[in-house]
């Protein structure tokens, strides 16, 4: 006998969500939180097939449908194609969470053209193409939510030039999408996480104490704390073109 969990409030009952880069970290937490709110969820991954399948099982534990799709956001066809594959598997698309991203940090003079092309392909072009494909399919009430970074608000030290550049572009994209899609009842917002405890940047890692000290709260955030803001925006009707800092006061 299969036991399912009830949703928190059912605010997303009947909705279909796509979370790019949903196999771990903030993406995985977001996929599970949206399922808890009642959504069926598709998630993309590149290398983490086993982790992605585990997230699928966690979504299904809430009685929701789920599918893991291998799609590299650096590939234009795969970035846009994830939307169509989601719609085919789950019957439509109501919520897009642009979470997939890469971070290349280091001195400006040490960044190669390969680094630049990869970061911009995933963090900017991939987000644009996935959003474009989603906008073409979404009904009124659609939601486009993009994961940015606290480094668009405050860059606390050297080494973040390329990453901050790529994520800053998403602010302009979000505001423009809000204007372009508002008449159709589709919203677009961006969430800026601060230092967040994930396997890529653990709260007990060697660089964690210095990062925690940069926040007003003096600690790392959790992936669930970011996911809760995404879930709020997925259910919010009168919020668009806005930036939400979930950064513990990093930008304060």
TrEMBL record:
Annotated ranges, domain Ketoreductase: 15-196
Keyword set, alphabetical order: Oxidoreductase
EC number per UniProt: 1.1.1.100
Top enzyme category: oxidoreductase
Superkingdom of origin organism: Bacteria
Pfam families (UniProt xref): adh_short_C2
SUPFAM superfamilies per record: NAD(P)-binding Rossmann-fold domains
Family to which this protein belongs: Belongs to the short-chain dehydrogenases/reductases (SDR) family.
Name the UniProt record assigns to this protein: 3-oxoacyl-[acyl-carrier protein] reductase
Lineage: Bacteria, Bacillati, Actinomycetota, Actinomycetes, Kitasatosporales
């Amino acid at each position: 006998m299969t036991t399912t969990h009830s949703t928190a409030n059912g605010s997303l009952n009947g909705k279909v969500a796509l979370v790019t880069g949903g196999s771990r970290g903030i993406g995985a937490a977001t996929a599970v939180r949206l399922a808890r709110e009642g959504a069926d969820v598709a998630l993309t991954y590149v290398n983490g097939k086993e982790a992605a399948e585990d997230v699928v099982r966690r979504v299904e534990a809430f009685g929701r449908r789920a599918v893991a799709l291998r799609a590299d956001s650096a590939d234009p066809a795969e970035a846009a194609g994830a939307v169509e594959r989601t719609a085919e598997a789950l019957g439509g698309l109501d919520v897009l969470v642009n979470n997939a991203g890469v971070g290349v940090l280091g001195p400006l003079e040490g960044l190669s053209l390969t680094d630049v092309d990869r970061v911009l392909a995933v963090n900017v072009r991939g987000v644009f193409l996935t959003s474009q494909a989603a906008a073409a399919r979404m009904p009124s009430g659609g939601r486009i939510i993009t994961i940015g970074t606290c480094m668009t608000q405050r860059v606390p030290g050297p080494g973040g030039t390329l990453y901050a550049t790529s994520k800053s572009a998403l602010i302009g994209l979000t505001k423009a999408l809000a204007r372009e899609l508002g008449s159709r009842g589709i919203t677009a917002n961006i969430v800026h996480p601060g230092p967040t405890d994930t396997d890529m940047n653990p709260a007990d890692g060697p660089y964690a104490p210095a990062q925690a000290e940069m926040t007003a709260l003096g600690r790392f955030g959790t992936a669930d704390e970011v996911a809760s803001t995404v879930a709020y925006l997925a259910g919010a009707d009168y919020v668009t073109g806005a930036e939400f800092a979930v950064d513990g006061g990093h930008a304060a």
